[in-house]
Every structure is written in C-alpha cells, then in structure tokens.
Amino acid sequence: MQFAVIAFCVMPDHVHLLLEGLTDDADFRRAMRLWKLRTGFAWKQRTECRLWQESFYDYVLRRFDSVPGIAKYIVDNPISSGRDSPGTRKRRSNGAL
Q1: Residue 26: how many CA atoms within 13 Å on its side-chain side?
Q2: Considering Cα of 84, then 47, then 52, then 28, what sign does the dihedral take?
Q3: How far apart are CA 10 and CA 80, in angstroms?
Q4: Does the residue 97 lie in any domain?
Q5: Residue 66 in domain
Q6: Could you give the number of structural domains in the chain?
Q7: If DSSP states are collapsed to H, E and C, what string results for 11-75?
Q8: DSSP secondary structure string, 76-88?
Q9: Distances (CA, A) of 92 to 35, 54, 58, 69
C-alpha cells in the first residue's frame, strides 16, 4: 500500500492532503487510520493531549477535476484563510505546482 503526496498543508486545526494511490492495494481509509494512529500516539506522548478527532472528510477526485487546481487550493489555503502570506507557499508543496 503506497501513496504519493502530491500536495499538503498543515493548518492549526486540520490538514489538507492530496494523495495518489500508487498500487492496486492502496487503501486510503486504512492509510488514514494508521497515519492518525501513529501521529496521534506520538503527539500524546509529548503533550498528553489528543491530536485528531474520530473521523475525517475525504473527497475522491473525478475525471473532470483539475489536479493542479486542487493542489493550488491546498497550498493556498493558509493565504485564503488569512493565516499566512504568499512568500511561504512554496514550502508547503512537494513541487506539485
């Protein structure tokens, strides 16, 4: 089960991820469960606070969706929310744009 991270953005209260399954057995729900388990455990060890809520919102891209457009939305999210400036945008992408 492998995924490529196309774009990501870590916000104070949530995370945006654009992932692509690279293998036939790429199971997004399982990958998210494991990622939340591992990161949540490490966070709780350091802070004694819970990191993640129980569920998550997912959206599967359709044929007509623009991958570069979705990646740009993710990378620009801190700017559009007023939490960041354009100069820091590049650090949040994996060169997807």
Answers
A1: 10
A2: positive
A3: 14
A4: no
A5: yes
A6: 1
A7: CCCCEEEEEEECCCCCCHHHHHHHHHHHHHHHHHHHHCCCCCCCCCCCCCCCCCCCHHHHHHHHH
A8: HHHHHTTS--GGG
A9: 19, 25, 20, 15
pLDDT tens digit sequence for 18-38: 999 999 999 988 998 998 999
Count of residues making up the chain: 97
Residue 17 is encoded by which pair of tokens?
A: 């991820």
User: Domain span at residue 29?
Assistant: 3-92
Mean pLDDT along residues 38-65: 89
Beta pairing partners, 7: 18, 93
Task: Tell me if 4 sits within 8 A of 19, measured CB to CB.
Answer: yes
Average pLDDT for 72-94 = 62
Q: How far is CA 12 from CA 4, 29, 46, 65, 83, in A?
A: 23, 22, 17, 27, 9
Please report where in the chains the tokens 């939340």 appear, as a residue: 36
The whole-angstrom distance between residue 3's C-alpha and the CA centroid of its chain comes to 12
